[in-house]
């Protein structure tokens, strides 16, 4: 179970490694692969790729894809229509589009 993700290489791992700094003798938790920073991991809800949980529910590629598709969709509307849509959705979360007037 890959509970964590290495911020160095993006690899998942189940448990952090303990690394003791030879200079100071201080122990740090690091990723086992790169001995670098890591975060709690989640799976992208679109493609299943491992991502840092703090990034949200989609990986960067799926986020970009969604935004690109939305932009393409907007291109089908005239500037006046886009203005009307913008007003209708002003401040309305897109996760609840049924509330838009
Ligand atoms: Zn790594
Ligand atoms: Zn994805």
Structural commentary:
This protein is an alpha+beta fold. It has one domain (4-89). 25% of the residues lie in helices and 22% in strands. Bound molecules: zinc ion (2 copies). The site of one zinc ion has 8 residues, from helix 1.
Characteristic terms for this protein:
101 residues, binds zinc ion, 4-stranded antiparallel beta sheet
| Beta fraction | 15-25%
Number of domains: 1
Catalogue the ligands. Answer: zinc ion
Strand order of the biggest β-sheet: 2-1-5-6
Give me the strand/helix succession: EEEEEEHH
Largest sheet, strands/sense/barrel: 4 strands, antiparallel
Topology:
Blueprint: E1 4-6, E2 12-13, E3 17-20, E4 27-30, E5 38-43, E6 50-52, H1 60-74, H2 79-88
Antiparallel strand pairs: 1-2, 1-5, 3-4, 5-6
Bound molecules: zinc ion (ZN) (2 copies).
